[in-house]
Amino acid sequence: SDIFSRIALPATIAHRGLSAHAPENTLAAVKAAHAAGHAWVELDVQLLGDGTPIIWHDAGVRRCSNSRGKLKKLNWEVASRLDVGRWFDTTFSGERMATLEEMLALLDELGMGLNLELKVNRGRDASALVESVLPAAMQSLPRERLLVSSFDMTALNAARRLVPDPQALALGLLYEKLPRDWEDRASRLGAFSLHLDWRRLKLAQAQAVAASDYRLLCYTVNDTQAYQRLCQWGVDAVISDDPGRLTR
Ligand code: G3P
Ligand code: MG
Question: Where is the GP-PDE domain (predicted)?
């Protein structure tokens, strides 16, 4: 059996952990997703200035911490002291930024699946990210519970160069809008899936991808009507801030 059948994607994946109920991309958000019964989470990974891989979305820390400044200017000694929970709710005061290593250990312990998004913000080095993230992720999680995605083609190509066998690592192409040559791109990469913004997805596009060998995921789906429509369109999984609110 190939990787397409081995990866049992659930219908819904918790975006940045259970980000509607806990501070995004934290250990708390992943614990909350697990407690709510979600089997998979989507998380963003980047490097600090000192090369430490951490779970974080933005290029800076202003929105999701009690401090400010760019990630590339932070080292772990400073970053590890930030409060990344209080901005969301005082009940999460004292939550600390998660390193990739800490997060992988938690996911392994909980037996959860991970859609790891290689987040290459402006001016950051895609290859350095891939080289420090992939070996760790692949060592901690079985290939059935790991799906690595990115908007960044350099990152995806570097990942495939590092792990040439498509069966050994599932890769997902992230697009805001499906490009016309998506099938060529997916085949050249040896992709597992396409991850599309549901707001810009047309029925005919969804049907074309659903009819292909590639899995189709949509982000970020927080509306039940949209979810039901996407299910009818043949979408395999949706990434949601609050998957528990989505009903078939
Ligand atoms: O991976 C899906 C989604 O997370 C992509 O957009 O900005 O939420 O990381 P963003
Ligand atoms: Mg993301």
Answer: 10-248
